[in-house]
Amino acid sequence: MKNCKNSLCALLFLVLGGSCLSVQAQNGDGKPSFHAGVLMQGYAVAEQKGFSGEADKDWASDMTLYRLRFLVESQVTKKDYLFIQTNMTSPYSLNKPNTLGMRVLEAQYDHTFNDHFVISAGKMMVSHTRDPLLSAGRLLLEDFAYYQCAYTDALHTDAGRDVGVNLWGTFNDRKFKYSVAAYAGKRDFEGQKNAPFRKVGRLEYNFMDIDRGRGSNLGEGKTLTVGGGFDTQGSYVAAGGDVFFDYPLGAAGSLTAVGGFTYQTGGNDLKSKYSFATAIPTQNVQLLELGYYIKACKLQPWVRYERQDINSQDNQRGGLLASDFDELNTNTLVGGGFTYFFNKYATCLKLSYLAVNKGVQDKAGKVSSKTHGQLMLQLQVFTF
To answer: What are residue 378's DSSP bridge partners?
Structure first.
């Protein structure tokens, strides 16, 4: 316990000290610069137990410290950049008071040859779609999309992160961006010693302003970004596209619209050396988010729709009927809410209500669809 306290104190010293160093170094003459920050998100929630667990209509309430992240970045030289992010080992709630520990969530090093060619290496976020690549502190909604990174365990990632190398760059005044990456992926296929790496690629084009990687621009700028990519390892294949649109709409504020579609499958060959057939059923994932930022009152109402539509193949079902398996694993989520920005993303309060419809199997083995709800109030403090 004493060592844990000492580690936390040292980390806090690094964060606070890094913040001071950043002011001095950035005002210097080419010396390395340091910048540190904190992301804290906590919420009070009331949800039907079937929303995230077994099929139960009873409501339960809780208060949770969901994210506590310390972030440090350094522009070591003009061409070398380092980013490290830590997070709690698990959320801390009143109903499940876990031991508060910290782990390294990201550790990324970039070397820039020029605008067209950059090498990133380390533990990084993995995705062929835009939504998971955003910062958790700059989201339009209360959290990331539910089904964009649904198979982190099967693909052996840590909260969507993996260790690897990413080659990326931009062209046409940074309007066009590409990335091609290789990650460790799953290494422990039964009876196999040298599994192939996970390969991910993405292209995107900015038709207006450069995409700043935010869930909403909060009335600043005009953005239309269209992107697409692929993700594969062994028999697993995913491919999809997405669009992000943020544009002033009238004098009162600006409209934000997000759309995405992904097809993915673990394959249907159980004899494949590197098979994901029983881990990732064939499916398509749909995403739609809409929000309108009202400048005068710093308020943004929003709505969301997500669907994970399972269309399984015979070897993916584990003996279940196709209709039962698909209904049990298909999820549809709809909801909406309001975000009040005290100080843009630095401090904001989010109120949301979500309802998820999913298949439920009763004691007699009959499968039917049930809907469960969740009401959440989230506070965010973010400085970086």
So the answer is: 43, 350
**2-383 domain in CATH 3.40.50.300?**
no
CB 278 within 8 A of CB 153: no
What pLDDT digit, counting tens, does each position of 293-334 carry?
999 999 999 999 999 999 999 889 888 889 899 999 999 999
Q: Which two tokens stand for residue 136?
A: 């958790």
Taking only the tens place, the pLDDT of each residue in 124-179 is 999 999 999 999 999 999 999 989 877 888 999 999 999 999 999 999 999 999 99
- At residue 76, the 3 state secondary structure works out as coil
Count of Cβ atoms closer than 10 Å to residue 123 Cβ: 20
Domain boundaries, the chain: 2-383
Q: Which pair of tokens denotes residue 152? A: 């982190």
The phi, psi pair for 181, rounded to 5°, reads -140, 155
User: The whole model's pTM is what?
Assistant: 0.87
CA distance 281 to 114: 41
pLDDT tens-digit readout, 22-63: 333 333 456 789 999 999 999 999 999 888 776 677 899 999
Instruction: Report the alpha-carbon distance of residue 179 to residue 375 in Å, rounded.
Output: 38
Q: What is the CA radius of gyration of the chain?
A: 22
Which residues contact residue 354 at a Cβ distance below 8 angstroms, ignoring those fewer than 6 apart? 51, 304, 333, 334, 335, 373, 374, 376
DSSP string, 364-380: TS-EEEEEEEEEEEEEE
